[in-house]
Amino acid sequence: MKPDLFESPDYYMLDDLLSDEHKLVRNATRDWVKRAVSPIIEDYAQKAEFPSQIINGLAEIGAFGPYIPSTYGGAGLDQISYGLLMQEIERGDSGVRSTASVQSSLVMYPIFAYGTEDQRKKYLPKLASGEFMGSFGLTEPNHGSNPGGMETKFKDMGDHYLLNGAKLWISNAPFADIAVVWAKNEEGRIHGLIVERGMEGFSTPETHNKWSLRASATGELIFDDVKVPKENLLPGKNGLGAPLGCLDSARYGIAWGAIGAAMDCYDTALRYAKERTQFGKPIAAFQLQQKKLAEMITEITKAQLLAYRLGQLKNEGKATTAQISMAKRNNVEMALKIAREARQILGGMGITGEYSIMRHMMNLESVVTYEGTHDIHLLITGADITGIQAFK
Ligand code: TGC
Ligand code: FAD
Q1: Are 154 and 162 in contact (CB under 8 A)?
Q2: Is 185 inside a domain boundary?
Q3: Residue 1 pLDDT > 80, yes or no?
Q4: Measuring from each residue's beta carbon to the nearest atom of ligand 2, which residues come in under 6 Å?
Q5: N or C: which end of the chain has fewer CB within 10 A?
């Protein structure tokens, strides 16, 4: 892969809106990605392997629990710093951002928000330092967009719960030490349970043959009469709103992350267009290529403004689920379109692993599907503005 020459586009001088802390977090993450992710990521994506050596680095830059209070090992940062971290990590690779998103928003967040003080003390510092890695089990073979129909269930056996069922498409599952699993009790009410690797009847087979997010490990969570201690139930919230509440936080991070992937594709295509000569001129001199590049920077700038304003609303505790859906949907689609256009600017070279664009493009095909598909987010906006749900 070519050396990482990334220069961040900032057409509307958004840097002026960032605090010193935001810039510090953003620059430290950018430097780390250049040093630790860019040189190795293509190889790991090609061999479909998660680069586990980056776990310590992710912990050191504060990517595990950026907004979790420092009392529990988190970085205690605000939501804009969290967004910038996700942007810079996904600039390197969406799969690496997935690992950080799942750990922070889908494992640490529910333990922090719905867990007991004992659960917080037991798990959060280890998750923040990367000593423990986590996964989040919501999706099932028969229930993806419709998690409320889940079949995984647990029974109260007096001194423990007995868990049965299966989860599919679970990021980090093959290597995670713990899983936050959503299952129904005997009354059909959804609860979160912390399941630990090594519990009898719990297995995590890896999902192979992915053309997307190849540097992220994906797998199943299978529960065959797993005895879960009663103290592993998250008591603070139940019902479908509990897992969906975690998704709000992860979807917000993705709205920023997608900008990172788009910026990398744009920056690569711009540099290539200025260097590559055809018909005696750099291809950047042709109007058709300028149209592509001009539209890219316009869309990136709009996405940056959307994410920044959403970050302000999040910091004030005012961001709604529907506002988050709009940003996730818009920014991921924007990134996917830019990746496809950028790939064309590189001609044949665009399909090789010499450049990051094709990897971003294939990764974004997962990002547009997970954490709520493109269609589901449109329906969330539709329901919000009309007051009428069109899901069912
Ligand atoms: P619905 O009747 O609308 O809602 C059920 C209850 O949940 C509440 N609620 C929320 N609460 C908090 N946050 C949210 N985002 C919420 N959305 C809904 C709602 O108020 C209601 O509460 P209550 O008290 O009235 O019971 O539920 P529905 O069954 O009609 O479904 C709605 C729908 C389709 C929007 C929802 O199910 C959905 O979002 N589906 C998409 C599923 C999804 O996003 N799965 C993601 C799995 S995790 C993942 O992909 C990780 S990828 C790895 C990575 O991040 O990198
Ligand atoms: P389906 O729900 O079967 O949808 C198929 C198609 O039908 C989609 O186009 C969808 O938009 C459309 N559709 C569905 N319902 C409607 C409707 N009401 N109206 C109109 N169209 C509709 N899940 C986890 O729990 N944890 C994870 O860590 C995790 N990681 C993932 C990692 C990867 C790489 C991938 C690909 C997925 C991951 N997921 C995870 C699962 C992900 O959240 C689901 O794939 C996603 O929610 C969609 O579910 P599905 O794949 O079953 O598609």
Answers
A1: yes
A2: yes
A3: no
A4: 102, 136-139, 144-145, 169-171, 213, 218, 366, 369-370, 373, 375-376, 379, 391
A5: C
Q: Is 211 in the pocket of ligand 1 (CB under 6 A)?
A: no
319: helix, coil or strand?
Answer: coil
DSSP 203-237: E-PBP---SSSTTS-EEEEEEEEEEEEGGGEE-S-
Give Cα 295 to chain centroid, integer Å: 25
User: Tokens 């093959």 correspond to what residue?
Assistant: 174
Expressed in angstroms and rounded, the spacing between residue 190 Cα and the centre of ligand 1 is 12
Query: Do residue 253 and residue 375 come from a single domain?
Result: yes
382 lines ligand 1 (CB under 6 A): no
The whole domain housing 90 covers 14-129
Chain-centroid distance, C-alpha 11: 25
Q: Is 304 within a domain?
A: yes
- Our measurement of the distance from residue 19's CA atom to the centroid of its chain's CA atoms, rounded to an integer in Å, reads 24
Residues 237-271: pLDDT tens digits?
Answer: 999 999 999 999 999 999 999 999 999 999 999 99
- Please say whether the beta carbons of 327 and 310 come within 8 A: yes
Q: Going by CA atoms, what residue is nearest to atom 47 of ligand 1?
A: 371
- Give the percent of the chain with pLDDT over 70: 100
Domain membership of residue 347 (yes or no) is: yes
Q: How confident is the model at residue 148 (pLDDT cuts 50, 70, 90)?
A: very high
DSSP state of 353: T
Residues 381, 285 share a domain: yes
- Establish if 2 belongs to a structural domain: no
Residues contacting residue 233 through CB under 8 Å, at least 6 positions apart = 161, 191, 192, 193
Chain segment 50-91, per-residue pLDDT in tens: 999 999 999 999 999 999 999 999 999 999 999 999 999 999
CATH number, position 249: 1.20.140.10
Q: Tell me if 383 CB under 6 Å of ligand 1.
A: no
Q: What does the buried/exposed string (b/e) look like for 94-110 if buried means 16 or more CB atoms within 10 Å of the residue's CB?
A: bbbbbbbbbbbbbbbbb
Catalytic residues: 371
Q: Which of 64, 95, 129 delimits the end of a domain?
A: 129
- Given a contact cutoff of 8 angstroms between Cβ atoms, the answer to whether 177 and 133 are in contact is yes
Ligand nearest to the CA of residue 383, numbered in listed order: 1
Number of domains the chain is built from:
3
